[in-house]
Amino acid sequence: MKMPRLALACLCAVVPSSAYQTAAVDPIPWSASRKLDWRDFRAKAPGELQGARSMLKYSYSIGCRDDQLHADVTTLFLPDQSWVAYRVVSSGLASPLGLRHEQTHFDLKEVYTRRVRKMFGELASPCPRSDNELFAMAERVFQQEAAAQRLFEDETQAGTIEARQLDWEKRISADLESLSAFAAPAGVQTIEVQPFMVAVAGLVGERGIPVLLPIARFTGSNWINTWVTTDEYGKPFPPLEKIPAAWLGGAVPREWTVWLRRGLTTKARVIGTIRRDGCSSPVELTVEPLSVTSRYVLEAGRRVAVTSDQAVEDVRELKPGEPEFARVRPLIEEAFRANEAGTIRSESRRAWVREALAQLDVTKRPFEIESVWRQASDASPVVYCFEARKEGSYRDGLTLTLKIAGWIRLDASGQSTTVSVSGSVYEEEGMWHRLPIGLLRVGSRTLWVMGLAHYESGEFEIREVTTTAVRRLTTADNGGC
Hints:
By secondary structure, this protein is of the alpha+beta class. It has seven helices and 24 strands.
């Protein structure tokens, strides 16, 4: 058997570090959702120097194993070697422009990280090449990055010329967008995040009892759901103190943070368990009475709760009268048309669908958008979750529906990409509807917490949205008949 080559691994510094360092602090990988803060600059400024300096590095390994090229490259900011002068910060002179300048150094380095990934991703027959040759190819790109960093520093006069600083920001943002396909690989957790749990909060029963339904937990590397499955109403269920450790990987956390809306949160303290009325339903956690404001928000629908300081962003539904709805409608209609025929072919494998379509050509019915959701923030790229349909009445007054749902990603330049489109043909009892609840940015990953309603049942899921796909990470049953 051919022995695999050993991958070359190194940590290459480009910006010089301070000679004064504090205790080691974990490096910060580049992330579109995690911008630098002056508090990230932990090192002591040398002497009487003013201003700031970022210590940036590449962490990379390049080599072939079993005749397959493996090239892993990450952009890192080193807090314990990056400094900002105390006098500057304490006097209030550490301007937003100065922080933008340091962030732009970081962003520029990420551009070249992606260029390295692109170069190796497109390289034909890489493994006949020697390790030294592969290493030299990466080094040439790193040298180009070092030259670009010097040019950026010179042209902006260390960020003091705002017009030139803004011009560089625009150019780098465009470069990052054009190289978005070579961002950190989907599903890679590049930033260390402590384990935490996710639940959906709501009110149940005629009395509106506040409850939490755990739907997923993050172990530090993976997303799983081990909460009890649903069972028939009336079946015994354990009290809080006897919940099996296997259900949540340990004792049930007594305190959760419920994210209501617009950054408003409330603490929810768990006091017991309950199973709702219905054919079948999951065990849920009851909590202490909530404030009038919290109850008002929960009356409008479920919200996301977590056991850590993990932030939860709002999502919002576009309404037909909004200008943005009008702008995105042609994109949704185009995605619908592109997937309509394929959905019909796939669904026609079922005999009843073939019979129904023979009576009603649903493709000739009017197109309508059922819902469009997006993240509430204006961060780029904007991601839309949509559902659209064509439907009409046929046999015995039944409604036949052709539904297509998916995601549209709109970048800063206005370019759109449609990903993870799916569809089905159904009668009323086959209906389904997605309801986004909130958005999590966990490390370098973007996750949507979703409700999924069926005719007489429901579930909750967490989906990861990347540049090229949307995949389901976990599912939790919400009961039904």
